[in-house]
TrEMBL record:
Residues 24-81 form the Helix-turn-helix domain. InterPro entries: HTH_animal. Pfam families: HTH_animal (PF26215). This is Uncharacterized protein LOC110990552. It comes from the Eukaryota. It comes from Acanthaster planci (Crown-of-thorns starfish).
Amino acid sequence: MRVTVDVGGSLGHSVYRKPTHKDRYLHNSSFHHPRVKSSVIRTLIQRAHKNCKQEHLQDELQHISTALRLNEYHRRQVKTQNHLNFRVSYTQSQRPNYKDIVNPPFIGSTSHKIQRILNQASIKVYHSSIKKLQASLQTHKDKQDHKTKAGVCGIPCECGKVCIGETGRDLSTRVKEHTAHGCRGDYDKSAIVKHSHAEDHIIDWKAAELIVPVNRWHPRCIREAIEMCRHDTVPQNIGFNI
């Protein structure tokens, strides 16, 4: 909503559009059900009546009419929806009772024939769009490496036990921290390093893995406790009690 200060100090309000807005809406020539296209017009007009002060309403409706004509909507379609905007909505008792609801894809004139037949059988039809081009195209973004995500990780020892821990950083950073604790002799700061030093075991750093990625801290701590119950762990702080 765009709020302005009118002459006299009163506040005016109208529809706000970003500077980059190009008035591009669902094109009238696109292969969609007519109700979907009419809903575009109806939504824009309802937004204008809801968000615009009376003195700004006609300017907004004129802008909508111009924008829709650029998207090849006919003037008659816009006028019809503007008139229907003030219809009295159905009460609950006036709404027709349907036995069932179906959602078939819209395939042109055939869909209208199917809809008429189903309506005669008291079946409500809501058409959906067919498979879009977007569903067939691959994303241009590179997939994020599994090891670069936050989550619950495990570092195994040669004895078969494993150190389970949660981390908000990536796995390689957490492994470097454990190795640094071992080099400095800070055994109390790393359960796996302390276990290796006490039992004279070798840590299998290369087998360290991210067991499950979890972004949020609290769910990550809960999952850490679950994984501790599932694995044979080295002596370490159990974290949450489950």
